[in-house]
Write a structure and sequence with these properties.
By secondary structure, this protein is mainly alpha-helical. The chain is built from seven helices and no strands. The protein has helices at 14-23, 35-57, 69-107, 114-171, 177-181, 185-218, 227-234. Residues 39-236 form the Centromere protein H C-terminal domain.
């Protein structure tokens, strides 16, 4: 099968692209129904919906008094959900039972009607899609793990870079003569950029600290008795 997603998804492995191609829409997934068959399916669906509505309408409403209205409504809601869940389970069980016999006949090549024989390629297609879904889910989990590890590594590298920049600026804080000795213009440009970013970050930090200090003072808390809050309000930290 030709790879349809290869050019648009170059980050995927060849095996993952193949799985996507298998899971893509396929004309074999569509089975044509005659007008009578489509009408029968529609009527069966309407009958099921009417049975559910009838069962709900036949429920005797309980009298609601002023004191226990909310409690009675909660009980009625739970009963409604239980009834709908029971109906859904029964309907799924009935569908499964009705589907089992023709599928078994199709798989074991014992189908006698044209519709039963049409099931075999659909069953095979279903199995292929199930396998593709399982493998794609596994590949998705691996990608998420790699992404999480990469994000952690990126944070660690950023912290290391910030520490190195702080050390460099601390060492050169009182002596700018080293700049004149630099011959690499690219390095000079990077140093200027780092210093500008550090100043911007420090300014943002000061603004955030001022806002936090004002919020603590205006909150009514006894911040004077708390070391952390007092340091924040009085700006006793060394940051």
């Amino acid at each position: 099968m030709a790879a349809k997603h290869g050019p648009s998804l170059p980050h995927l492995r060849p095996g993952e692209v193949t799985l996507l191609d298998y899971a893509a829409d396929d004309p074999r997934d569509v089975i044509s129904l005659s007008e009578k068959e489509a009408q029968l399916l529609q009527l069966a669906h309407q009958i099921q919906e009417q049975r559910l509505e009838k069962a709900l309408l036949e429920q005797e409403p309980e009298s609601l008094s002023g004191d226990n209205v909310e409690e009675a409504m909660a009980v009625a809601e739970r009963e409604f959900l239980d009834a709908r869940a029971t109906y859904t389970v029964k309907r799924k069980a009935t569908r499964t039972i009705l589907m089992t016999d023709p599928i078994l006949k199709a798989v074991h090549l014992k189908a006698t009607t044209p519709r039963e024989r049409d099931l075999l390629p659909l069953v095979n297609r279903r199995d292929v899609l199930a396998l593709a879904h399982e493998n794609l889910a596994s590949a998705h989990d691996q990608v998420l793990k790699r992404l999480a590890n990469t994000e952690v590594e990126n944070l660690q590298i950023n912290e290391e870079n910030q520490g190195l920049v702080r050390q460099l600026l601390a060492l050169t804080k009182h002596d700018d003569s080293w700049r004149e000795k630099l011959q690499d213009e690219n390095l000079k440009s990077q140093m200027d950029q780092l210093e500008a970013e550090l100043k911007t970050s420090k300014a943002k930090w000061e603004i955030m600290k001022s806002i936090a200090s004002a919020m603590v003072v205006g909150s009514g808390l006894d911040w004077a008795e708390d070391d952390t809050l007092r340091a924040l309000v009085l700006d006793e930290s060394d940051d």
